[in-house]
């Protein structure tokens, strides 16, 4: 991913505080490549929106610098940054028609009247709103307004388009539809997109790379599959996808693997991702779909005792809530197989894992 | 089975018809039931608004209608000089003096009304139209003989005004029951004895100027209020609530003081030895006091001060609803701050600006006390003259006519305004 050419955007040691006490963004270093779809993902208050606003120019970094195409943005006011932005609640100008809204960036750039009309129409066609140019934003549905906002942010062909939780106000079905649409528009135009969301499935669906924010720092910057398959710490493991946690102590480390003694005395081999050394505390992370359920008589080595608490029928799979090593909430996903009936509540069994599906990460405060 | 089918096919055409009739009946019944159920509700609702409706009718609709009527209704003369107003219709060739019977009727009426002590009413009414009428009517009445060979020559001998056509024109115009005299007068026109409408002589043609002055002052006050009120409303809408509340109280403070007191305070502040002049001289901005009161400047200062809240409040309420994200969006799309303000922010404040503008303008038009106290002779607005005719000369016809013209002119302006901006776009709160 990291090409040889200079990145389009570079955050260099950026720090931001509003009140001089709490630091909202701590030492942010992030390169954004030309043409990529980068998502800033994190819970509210993690600093992702502030980072976006600093890039847009609505906030100034307290320390550090942001470069766009190699040039510092320090003295560039927002309207000269050539950055399109889509806001959470669309921010369509209510006193203008849809067409006037979309033509607005061209108008303030003093494009000719015919060019304005022409390009606005093309942009509206792109988001499939060709016939609605004469309406007011208030007469459109939420999804349509979002498309207008998208067209307006793209019509002047900015270097980057920023999106601040643009789908947050839409219902689930429409949101999923719009995710794909935005992704396709990004692919066909090749524009650089920086997208902010707190919805991890949205981030996984759309992004080339995801920067997971927490506490004002990037916890991990990786591709969607990288984040899911090999989270670097417990926060990322917990925030992206479903996750079971068992706490224990590292006994020994051998290459990439380590032996972990759980709190109830059981021992397990895990992949050592983020552990300090023998004797240190660790949290083990398991994905519910990477756990094998085995009978008591016939189980593999790397296995833990489990008792079924309940089974939940989900249509295409069964979720089994188990008690494993003191954790009452250990979820396992089991696909239907004709040769296997789902276990019943109260049954004793074993759960086993390949060491690579069991990640030893930094300890989570219990 | 086949027979069943045939039966059902045969029955089908009638069945729906019967069904439809039943359905119609049912629907009608449903409607009447709904009406009955709604009637009680409507009666209750009407009962609740009835007191207000009655109040408005008595205090608003009836007086306005009465005023409009008074501006065209004219019975002052016909009440006391019935013979004259009947006889004047015999005067056909209005380029000549009227025939003898008209003179006879006038003489008889004069004598009767003098005995009844009602002649002053007739004299006053004629005096509105013909200068000096009061004097020659009263004088002639005193000197009329009991009998005369020719009333015409006798009266002309007593006062030569009876030999002028204009005198009889005034009588004809005043003979009622309806007249255009007051309304024409209110827009500086008059009717000659022969019925032509011409402009009034220059020394009497004052009302168009006063109306113009009223509208100019009102528009200027509205404009100043908009210019001063806009930044204040913006500040109020964008400050943190704690500070905004304190500022709001400061804005509303003038509301809680009597208009008379506020105006009187301006007299104290603005006079030549007043605080403002003293301060300007003390700080060396001026060498000698300027005249700030009893002229147009004083009127503007005092009126703007009083009317400013009417501009700020609607503006504030509209600005409060304009999210800051619009300005951000505009800048991110490439608009410099000034463009963003003019193209995105300002247009969204139009509902507040137009509501505030209309409020201030309408209230300004009727201003009376403030210009009377802090203005000079050339700054009096139309209300001053309406009050003058109502209470000083008791010429209610003229007062009503001025009021009616003001009402119509305001309505026309409102129509134009509505066409330009649209009343539906206005937001008063």
Description:
The complex is a heterodimer of chains A (366) and B (429). Chain A contains eight helices and 20 strands. Chain A is an alpha+beta fold. Chain A has two domains: 9-234, P-loop containing nucleotide triphosphate hydrolases (Rossmann fold), CATH 3.40.50.300; 243-361, Nucleic acid-binding proteins (OB fold (Dihydrolipoamide Acetyltransferase, E2P), Beta Barrel). In chain A, the strands form four sheets. A six-stranded mixed beta sheet of chain A has the order 6-7-8-3-9-10, with helices on both faces. In chain A, β16 and β17 (317-324) form a beta hairpin. In chain A, α2 (98-108) crosses α3 and α3 (113-126) crosses α4. The longest helix of chain A is centred in the middle third of the chain and has 18 residues, at 172-189. In chain A, 40% of the residues are buried. With 429 residues, chain B is an all-alpha fold. Chain B has three domains: 2-65; 76-175, no CATH class; 207-425, MetI-like (MetI-like fold, Orthogonal Bundle). Helices cover 72% and strands 1% of the residues of chain B. Chain B contains 20 helices and two strands. A two-stranded antiparallel sheet of chain B has the order 1-2. Chain B is flat. Chain B starts with a helix and ends in a 9-residue tail after the last helix. At the A-B interface, β6 and α2 of A face α16 and α17 of B.
Question: Any chance you could write out the topology, listing elements then pairs?
Answer:
The complex is a heterodimer of chains A (366) and B (429).
Chain A lengths: L8 E9 L5 E10 L4 E5 L6 H9 L6 E6 L2 E2 L10 E4 L11 H11 L4 H14 L15 H13 L5 E5 L7 H18 L2 E6 L2 H7 L2 E6 L2 E6 L1 H6 L4 H6 L4 E11 L2 E6 L4 E6 L8 E6 L5 E3 L8 E11 L3 E8 L2 E9 L12 E5 L5 E4 L5
Parallel strand pairs in A: 3-8, 3-9, 6-7, 7-8, 13-20
Antiparallel strand pairs in A: 1-2, 1-4, 4-5, 9-10, 11-12, 11-14, 12-13, 14-20, 15-19, 16-17, 16-19, 17-18
Helix pairs in contact in A: 2-3, 2-4, 3-4
Chain B lengths: L1 H10 L2 H57 L5 H5 L1 H6 L12 H17 L2 H11 L3 H11 L7 H8 L6 H10 L6 H6 L2 E3 L5 E3 L7 H32 L2 H12 L6 H12 L4 H8 L13 H25 L4 H8 L4 H29 L3 H6 L7 H11 L3 H25 L9
Antiparallel strand pairs in B: 1-2
Pfam family, one (chain A): ABC_tran
GO cellular component, one term (chain A): ATP-binding cassette (ABC) transporter complex
Subunit structure (chain A): The complex is composed of two ATP-binding proteins (PotA), two transmembrane proteins (PotB and PotC) and a solute-binding protein (PotD).
């Amino acid at each position: 991913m990291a090409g040889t050419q200079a990145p389009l955007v570079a955050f260099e040691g950026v720090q931001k505080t509003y009140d001089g006490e709490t630091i909202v963004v701590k030492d942010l270093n992030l390169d954004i490549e030309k043409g990529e779809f980068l998502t800033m993902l994190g819970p509210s208050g993690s600093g992702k929106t502030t980072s976006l606003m600093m890039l847009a120019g609505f906030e100034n970094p307290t320390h550090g610098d942001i470069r766009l195409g190699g040039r510092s943005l320090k003295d560039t006011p927002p309207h000269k940054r050539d950055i399109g932005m889509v806001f959470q609640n669309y921010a369509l100008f209510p006193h203008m028609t849809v067409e006037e809204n979309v033509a607005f960036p061209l108008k303030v750039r003093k494009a000719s009247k015919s060019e304005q009309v022409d390009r606005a129409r093309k942009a509206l066609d792109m988001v499939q709103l060709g016939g609605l140019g004469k309406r007011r934003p208030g007469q459109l549905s939420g999804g349509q307004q979002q498309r207008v906002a998208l067209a307006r942010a793209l019509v002047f062909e900015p270097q980057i388009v920023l999106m601040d939780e643009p789908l947050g106000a839409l219902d689930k079905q429409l949101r999923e539809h719009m995710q794909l649409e935005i992704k396709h528009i990004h692919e066909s135009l090749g524009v650089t997109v920086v997208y902010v969301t707190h919805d991890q499935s949205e981030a996984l669906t759309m992004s080339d790379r995801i920067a997971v924010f927490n506490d004002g720092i990037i916890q991990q910057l990786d591709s969607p599959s990288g984040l899911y398959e090999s989270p670097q710490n417990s926060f990322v493991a917990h925030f992206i996808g479903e996750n079971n946690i068992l706490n224990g102590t590292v006994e020994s480390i051998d290459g990439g693997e380590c032996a972990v003694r759980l709190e109830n005395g059981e021992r397990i081999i895990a992949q050592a991702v983020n552990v300090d050394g023998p004797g240190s505390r660790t949290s083990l992370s398991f994905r519910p779909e990477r756990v094998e359920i085995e009978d008591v008589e016939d189980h593999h080595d790397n296995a833990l005792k489990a008792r079924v608490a309940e089974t939940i029928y989900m249509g295409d799979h069964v979720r089994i809530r188990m008690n494993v090593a003191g954790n009452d909430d250990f979820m396992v996903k089991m696909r239907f197989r004709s040769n296997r009936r789902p276990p019943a509540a109260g049954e004793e069994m074993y759960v086993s894992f390949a060491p690579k599906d069991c990640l030893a990460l930094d300890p989570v405060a219990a | 089975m086949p027979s069943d089918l045939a039966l059902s096919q045969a029955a089908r055409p009638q069945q729906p018809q019967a069904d439809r009739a039943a359905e119609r009946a049912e629907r009608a019944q449903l409607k009447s039931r709904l009406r009955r159920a709604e009637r009680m509700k409507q009666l209750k609702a009407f009962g609740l608004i009835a007191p207000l409706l009655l109040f408005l009718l008595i205090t608003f609709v009836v007086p306005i209608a009465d005023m409009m009527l008074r501006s065209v209704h004219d019975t002052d003369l016909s009440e006391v000089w019935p013979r004259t107003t009947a006889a004047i219709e015999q005067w056909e060739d209005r380029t000549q003096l009227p025939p003898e019977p008209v003179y006879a009727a006038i003489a008889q009426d004069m004598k009767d009304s003098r005995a009844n002590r009602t002649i002053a009413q007739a004299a006053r009414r004629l005096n509105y139209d013909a200068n000096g009428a009061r004097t020659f009517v009263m004088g002639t009445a005193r000197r009329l003989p009991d009998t005369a060979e020719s009333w015409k020559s006798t009266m002309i001998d007593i006062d030569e005004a009876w030999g002028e056509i204009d005198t009889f024109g005034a009588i004809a115009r005043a003979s009622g029951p309806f007249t255009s005299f007051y309304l024409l007068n209110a827009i500086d026109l008059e009717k000659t004895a022969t019925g032509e409408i011409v402009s009034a002589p220059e020394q009497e043609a004052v009302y168009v100027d006063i109306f113009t002055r009223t509208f100019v002052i009102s528009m200027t006050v509205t404009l100043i209020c908009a210019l001063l009120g806009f930044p204040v409303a913006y500040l109020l809408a964008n400050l943190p609530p704690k500070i905004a509340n304190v500022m709001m109280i400061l804005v509303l403070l003038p509301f809680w003081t009597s208009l008379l007191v506020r105006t009187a305070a301006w007299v104290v502040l603005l006079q030549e030895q007043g605080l403002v002049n003293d301060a300007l001289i003390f700080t060396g901005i001026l060498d000698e006091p300027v005249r700030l009161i009893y002229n147009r400047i004083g009127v503007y200062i005092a009126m703007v001060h009083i009317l400013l809240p009417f501009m700020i409040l609607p503006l504030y309420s509209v600005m409060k609803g304009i999210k800051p994200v619009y300005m951000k969006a505009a800048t991110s799309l490439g608009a410099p701050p000034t463009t963003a303000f003019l193209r995105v922010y300002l247009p969204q404040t139009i509902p507040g600006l137009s509501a505030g503008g209309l409020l201030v303008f309408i209230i300004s038009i009727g201003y009376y006390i403030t210009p009377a106290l802090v203005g000079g002779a050339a700054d009096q607005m139309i209300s001053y003259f309406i009050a003058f005719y109502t209470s000083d000369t008791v010429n209610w016809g003229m007062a009503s006519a001025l009021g009616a013209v003001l009402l119509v002119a305001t309505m026309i302006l409102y129509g134009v305004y509505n066409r330009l901006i649209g009343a539906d776009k206005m937001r008063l709160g």
